[in-house]
Amino acid sequence: MTTDKNRATAAAILPLVGGPDNIGSVAHCMTRLRLGLHDRTLVDGPGLRAVPGVLGVVEDDETYQIVLGPGAVARVTPEFEALVAEGRTPPAPVTADALAARGAALKEARTARNATPFKQFLRRVANVFVPLIPALIGCGIIAGLGGLLANLGWAPALVPALAAIGSGFMALIAVFVGHNTAKEFGGTPVLGGAVAAVIVFPGVAKVDAFGQHLSPGQGGVLGALAAALLAVRVERWCRRRVPQALDVLLTPTLTVLVPGLATLYGLMFVAGAVSAGIGTFADRLLATGGAFAGLVLGGLFLPLVMLGLHQALIPIHTTLIEQSGYTVLLPILAMAGAGQVGAALAVYARLPRNASLRATIRSALPAGLLGVGEPLIYGVSLPLGRPFVTACAGGAAGGAFIGLFNQLGVAFGSTAIGPSGWALFPLLKGTSGTGATLAVYAGGLVVGYLAGFAATYFFGFTRRMLDELNTGPGPQAPPTAQAKEPALA
After folding, report:
1. How far apart are CA 137 and CA 424, in angstroms?
2. By percentage, how much of the chain surpasses pLDDT 90?
3. How much is the pTM?
4. 97: pLDDT confidence band, cut at 50, 70 and 90?
5. How many CB atoms lie within 10 A of CB 69?
């Protein structure tokens, strides 16, 4: 009878404070039922005071307090909590469309946060190099094919032709960088290319700059980028100050002459030292701290993408390719995509009743395996939150694996930037032979998949997340195998 009385008191109070969906929290002290309410305008104060057993109400900034008296409050509170749990409107099923909308909102918020001058500059620098990626890929594959034929002793007459085709672009890449830099930053593209061409001109070897002789190509793409940026500044200055009648003659002349001299007597030395430092640092980083360096690089790449800072790596990759023929960083960074794939597979396994999200994963997985991670990032892991973190853990494990083998002497990299995942296999090149290179990279992918899957499966969900996300009737099994989970398409 006492229990019925306490439940009746709780049942009388609940609608007068706005119903179950208006309750944010429930607690009690010695005499008072303390409620966190979403909307206090829904409270019927006079009605509460008229409820038998209610001795009064007290409002403060944090909670709405109903005075029930000692002893009574401890008995009414559990009944009130049970009624709130029973009466709440069940949450709407979390579908793939809802997650995609959440992901789009996160991406839009990230874009807004990234609209800083520094990040906008990085984005514009990236825009200089992105148009070069198709040529880097094509020439990289051709050069790799030529190297394979040379190692096998096949088609010896064709090997020099393939080498010329594969290497010609890299020999003049500085010109293309100068052209694109001027175009991106508001100058005349051909003038940017003309200034950058100074760097690769064989005749620079005859230039005596402060007692030192230059080497063709010294400074590479970084020198070309700096030279073209200076050319843009000079051209803008000329456009504002040179009389219109002389503009067609003086502006292009000064735009090439002034940055050209600055390039020969300064920029090529500085950019050359920076380029050499990048190459030395990358080699020593992986040779001495390979496993740890790989773990850090593989684990932090996805957050770098979210912050927009990954764009700073594009000229570094290009510099490494220009120096040694491949970038040792890209295979390690590609492990972030492997962790992402493993995490998506774990989400698929843990949410057997969320047909909408599982369909999204099935459609995005092929792209993810080929290194295109955006559909999985913004459609699955990032909106869910915790699986994004566990995907980073998978990337860290794969990166550590590849970094360890670099430390053990199996150094390799990618001859081009852009592709990732399985698409990177044709572009791999190393010092230990094709077989060892492909095996280590494949092993890194497997480690990334497995670590991303395990981390997400065991740590990627709270119990509440599983309850909210596992909605729907679940997959339909064949009549003869009702207990079996359908295979991943």
Report:
1. 10
2. 38
3. 0.70
4. low
5. 14
Torsion of CA 276, 280, 282, 283, to 10 degrees: 140
The secondary element (H helix, E strand) that includes residue 34 is strand 32-37
Tell me: pLDDT of 32 over 80. yes
Beta bridge partners of 23: 37
Q: Which amino acid is at 371?
A: G
Domain 2-86 superfamily per CATH: Glucose permease domain IIB (3.30.1360.60)
Q: How confident is the model at residue 89 (pLDDT cuts 50, 70, 90)?
A: low
Coil vs helix vs strand at 37: strand
* Mean pLDDT of all residues in 382-397: 92
Task: With a cut of 90, say whether residue 166 has pLDDT above it.
Answer: no
Polymer length in residues for the chain: 489
Q: What is the largest CA-CA distance in the chain?
A: 106
Encoded tokens for 230: 């200076």
User: What tokens were used for 451?
Assistant: 């670590």
Single out the catalytic residue among 29, 139, 238, 392: 29
What distance in Å separates the CA atoms of residue 210 and residue 204, rounded to the nearest whole number? 13
User: What is the C-alpha separation between 139 and 149, in angstroms, rounded?
Assistant: 15
Q: Are 191 and 252 in contact (CB under 8 A)?
A: yes
Give the residue with greater pLDDT, 449 vs 47.
449
Using an 8 Å Cβ cutoff, are 441 and 331 in contact? Answer: yes
Give the start-to-end residue ranges of the domains of the chain.
Answer: 2-86, 119-282, 325-481
Q: In the numeric block, which tokens belong to residue 88?
A: 């709440």
Segment (H or E) for 252: helix 244-262
Long-range contacts, stretch 309-315, CB < 8 angstroms, 24+ apart: 309/119, 309/122, 311/119, 311/122, 311/123, 311/125, 311/126, 312/122, 312/125, 314/125, 314/126, 314/129, 314/130, 314/417, 315/125, 315/129, 315/221, 315/222, 315/225
What's the mean pLDDT when you consider all of the chain? 85
Please tell me the distance from the alpha carbon of residue 130 to that of residue 126, in angstroms, as a whole number: 6
Show the tokens assigned to 214. 């230059």
Tell me, what amino acid is at 481?
A
Answer positive or negative: Cα dihedral of 391, 395, 398, 401.
negative
29 is catalytic: yes
